[in-house]
């Protein structure tokens, strides 16, 4: 395994996620404090993913046809430019809720290109038997970045003007783009693709491939639940902290950091968790997520809230990192980009649909009702995971080496 490439990859994940977490903490806190309306928070979370409903399928084919490193770098450049323009708008005093939502839509679209590009690049650069370890490490690097970004963002939100804080975010995205560019990469020739195969034919092939490998449906469902819980928690944590716990931006940043600490722990013990749970990895990971959701739904005590978000962070990180490894290992290398984008399409569709509903729910019944509502699909996911754990292919992939 190439250690230099591993370090650059981990740095890229860390810096990108640090910037994303800091940006999210700053904007969601500022947006709620400015509007005092959780509905805007719900629309912010939801609308950010709307472009992905149209772009993800296209990005999947683009990733499989193109140089994956160049695409990841392009996505980083787009994110940086968007942040510079948003920071300039705030400096100029022309900020508006819909301006923030529009900027977030662009950021999320760029992220929809960055993530499958980098994930497909990982599967191409590193040997197949190293993927669980690499994805576990990248998960740890990602949540470590999230921890750092959220903690610093929480402090900056309470002490520094938002436009100054956003300037730090710009630097982090620049760093992520630069480290991605430094990854050594020789594109693999696509020998099995017909030169006459059109863009639309390859898009269709992606859907046909999923239908022929139906285990992917179950994996997409579980990964969707992990992502929906993850983004819902991040989106409504500011509302939960301010309106339910009655705490400051500093506590908000600490809760977000605790959520990230759970992800770090999940990454550090990911290999052990894989060996311990084997084919029931989805069951136990979703059960941990459900436990955290139950705690934060019924408590108004700050220490218990920290424990609940720790469990949610661990559970969702197990789902997102390890089940993603299962999906990559079960997928032919020719379809890595398309399967990553189809997975993200499922994830983002769930957030687009649920975001406004949760926003209305939080406005009328409070933020805890959002987390209580999330228990319903997660419980269904546990049942689904139990059924899938009995499939021979799933057992074979999740069996320890």
Show the helix and strand layout.
Elements (H helix, E strand, L loop, with lengths): L2 H33 L2 H10 L2 H16 L2 H24 L5 H29 L5 H29 L2 H20 L17 H14 L2 H30 L4 H20 L1 H8 L3 H18 L3 H28 L6 H30 L1 H22 L3 H7 L3
Unreliable sequence segments: none
Question: Tell me, what's the shape?
Answer: globular
Query: In the CATH scheme, what's the topology name of the largest domain?
Result: Growth Hormone, Chain: A
Q: Please give the share of residues in helix.
A: over 70%
Task: Give the percentage of residues in beta strands.
Answer: under 5%
Order of helices and strands: HHHHHHHHHHHHHHHH
The total of helices stands at: 16
Main CATH class of the largest domain: Mainly Alpha
Quantity of strands, as a count: 0
- Termini gap: 17 Å
Number of self-contained structural domains: 2
- Mean of residue pLDDT values: 82
What profile does the largest beta sheet have?
none
CATH architecture of the largest domain: Up-down Bundle
Main location: membrane
Organism: Halobacillus trueperi
Subcellular location: Cell membrane
Membrane topology: Multi-pass membrane protein
What does this 3D model show about the protein?
The protein is mainly alpha-helical. It folds into 2 domains: about 1-185, MFS general substrate transporter like domains (Growth Hormone, Chain: A), CATH 1.20.1250.20; about 200-400, MFS general substrate transporter like domains (Growth Hormone, Chain: A, Up-down Bundle). Helix content is about 85%, strand content about 0%. The protein has helices spanning about 5-35, 40-45, 50-65, 70-90, 95-125, 130-160, 160-180, 200-210, 215-245, 250-270, 270-275, 280-300, 300-330, 335-365, 365-390, 390-400. Helix 5 (about 95-125) packs antiparallel against helix 14 (about 335-365) and helix 12 (about 280-300) packs antiparallel against helix 15. The longest helix has about 35 residues, at about 5-35. It is globular. Its main location: membrane. It is a multi-pass membrane protein. This is MFS transporter. It comes from Halobacillus trueperi.
